[in-house]
Amino acid sequence: MGILLENMKDYEGALGYYTLWVGEKVQGKTHPDTLNTIMNMAITYEEGLEDFPKAEEMFRLALDGYERSLGKVHKGTKNCAFNLARLIDEQGRQDDLKKVLTAYPHIVDDEDWYSDEGDDDDEEDDDDHHDE
């Protein structure tokens, strides 16, 4: 439902849904469903509201939970690390990007992180990294 609201450009509604969903979860803060919701909130902050500091905070919160509960090489952890790295890269913060890529070297091959050319290939489906 949150992604549907986000696709309809109702970003506040999507965040409200995600917040409600996380608040009602009984599985705990590190359950994969809870972490997926937190990551979706981060994507909404990033893409919908363009609140990059809040998006980074949420990505880091989800990433910490994924790593603690599932380990660094789990698909969910890699996906979240990729999204965090992408956010940092899009802001041109190369020093911070290097820290993320050093901590999660398995995502280095997923993208040409150090390309000097403008990356106008953002037309690809942004939903590739959404999880429900």
List descriptors:
single chain; 132 residues; mainly alpha
Walk me through what this model shows:
The chain has 132 residues and is mainly α. It is built from 6 helices and no strands. Helix 5 (75-90) packs antiparallel against helix 6. The longest helix has 19 residues, at 52-70. The model is unreliable at 116-129 (pLDDT under 50).
- Helix-and-strand structural type: mainly alpha
What is the 3D shape? globular
Task: Say how many strands there are.
Answer: 0
- What fraction of the residues are assigned to beta strands by DSSP? under 5%
The helicity comes to 55-70%
Task: Give, in order, the helices and strands.
Answer: HHHHHH
Number of helices: 6
The span between the termini is 9 Å
Tell me about the biggest sheet? none
The mean pLDDT is: 77
Radius of gyration: 14 Å
Query: Which residues sit in consecutive blocks of at least 5 with pLDDT less than 50?
Result: 116-129
Short description:
Helix content is 62%, strand content 0%.
Topology:
Blueprint: H1 2-7, H2 11-24, H3 32-48, H4 52-70, H5 75-90, H6 94-103
Helix pairs in contact: 2-3, 3-4, 3-5, 4-5, 5-6
